[in-house]
Amino acid sequence: MGKILLIGGIGAGKTSLKQMLMNEQVSYQKTQMLNFSQTFIDCPGEYLEIPRYYHVLIDASHQVTEIWALQDATKQRTFYPPKFAKVFNKPVVGVITKIDLPKSSLEQATSYLTYAGIKTPFCPVSIITGEGIELLRQRLEGLNGLSNH
Ligand SMILES: Nc1nc2c(ncn2[C@@H]2O[C@H](COP(=O)(O)OP(=O)(O)OP(=O)(O)O)[C@@H](O)[C@H]2O)c(=O)[nH]1
Ligand SMILES: [Mg+2]
Question: Is residue 149 scored above 90 in pLDDT?
Answer without folding.
Answer: no
